[in-house]
Specification:
With 311 residues, this protein is mainly α. Helix content is 76%, strand content 0%. It contains nine helices and no strands. It holds the Pfam family Sec8_N. Keywords: Coiled coil, Exocytosis, Protein transport, Transport. Belongs to the SEC8 family. Component of the exocyst complex involved in the docking of exocytic vesicles with fusion sites on the plasma membrane.
């Protein structure tokens, strides 16, 4: 249009072109007004709908912005809470550990009294376990507790001397307890022979069926009466019954003593002590046996003299 108007030299042509343009513009306005009149309802609805959509989008954007701000705030608060919770969790662990240490200290304080009771009742395995556990705790987790220094020295000293008591008990059962059973059996046979009225000589004492340390694994030690099967045992299977007399079964008692010495890590000292005292103990056995035989023979002579002289 501009090119046509600029290239035209005739004013009339430009006026005509201008008139056509104005007429076309007016026609376009009329057509537009007619279309607006015809579609006024739809146009109004579309405008209102568009306005509503725009408002909703704007509100949604504002809400999303607010949600983002809230999320950032929650994130910061959660970080703070996480640090606080971690601190509380660590404090809980520390308090639990302190309570466990206090309980352990309270139990260790009662160890000397319980140890004396176990030693008095000769439950040496339980006493050894208790003593070793207490000393390990005092020299381990409770090493920095200054208030337990006296108790630590006392229990450590008892642990150092504990094996001497166990070795003495072991020797007593090895050499004295076993030979006492032989002596008691001979006395019983002597009493029985004194009741017999004939002059038949008393038979020799049979020691093949007696329980001796050499027969540690034989049936007479571990099987029920009447059973002839042999059953071996080990230190791991030996357990201490707190309700029964610990010396009732001498072989099991010696096994308990050896197990206690093993827990104290004093087996080499035990072997050395047994080797050093072997000759002395055997001489004592011979001396005691000689005395028992002499006393038995004297008693038999007295009984025979009384039978030959009724007055």
């Amino acid at each position: 249009l501009l090119r046509t108007l600029s290239t035209s030299d005739d004013v009339e042509d430009r006026e005509n072109e201008k008139g056509r343009l104005e007429e076309a513009y007016e026609k376009c306005d009329r057509d537009l007004d007619e279309l607006i009149v015809q579609h006024y309802t739809e146009l109004t609805t579309a405008i209102r709908t568009y306005q509503s959509i725009t408002e909703r989008i704007t509100n949604s954007r504002n809400k999303i912005k607010q949600v983002k701000e809230n999320l950032l705030s929650c994130k910061m608060l959660l970080h703070c809470k996480r640090d606080e919770l971690r601190k509380l969790w660590i404090e809980g662990i520390e308090h639990k550990h302190v309570l466990n240490l206090l309980d352990e200290i309270e139990n260790i304080k009662q160890v000397p009294q319980k140890l004396e009771q176990c030693m008095a009742s000769k439950h040496y395995l339980n006493a050894t376990d208790m003593l070793v556990s207490a000393v390990d705790s005092l020299e381990g987790p409770l090493l920095q507790v200054e208030g337990l220094s006296d108790l630590r020295l006392e229990l450590h000293s008892k642990k150092m001397n504990m094996h001497l008591v166990l070795i003495d008990e072991l020797h007593r059962h090895l050499y004295i307890k076993s030979t006492n059973r032989v002596g008691q059996r001979s006395k019983e046979k002597g009493r029985i022979s004194s009741l017999v009225k004939d002059a038949s000589p008393v038979p020799l004492m049979d020691v093949t069926n007696l329980s001796t340390p050499r027969k540690f694994l034989e049936t007479s030690q571990f099987s029920t009466p009447g059973s002839s099967s042999m059953r071996e045992t080990s230190l791991l299977e030996i357990k201490e019954d707190m309700e029964l007399d610990p010396e009732e079964n001498s072989a099991v008692f010696m096994g308990i003593l050896i197990k206690g010495l093993a827990k104290l890590k004093k087996i080499p000292e035990t072997v050395k002590a047994i080797q050093d005292r072997l000759e002395q103990e055997l001489k004592q056995i011979v001396k005691r046996s000689t005395t028992q035989v002499a006393d038995n023979g004297y008693q038999r002579g007295e009984n025979l003299s009384q039978e030959n002289q009724p007055r």
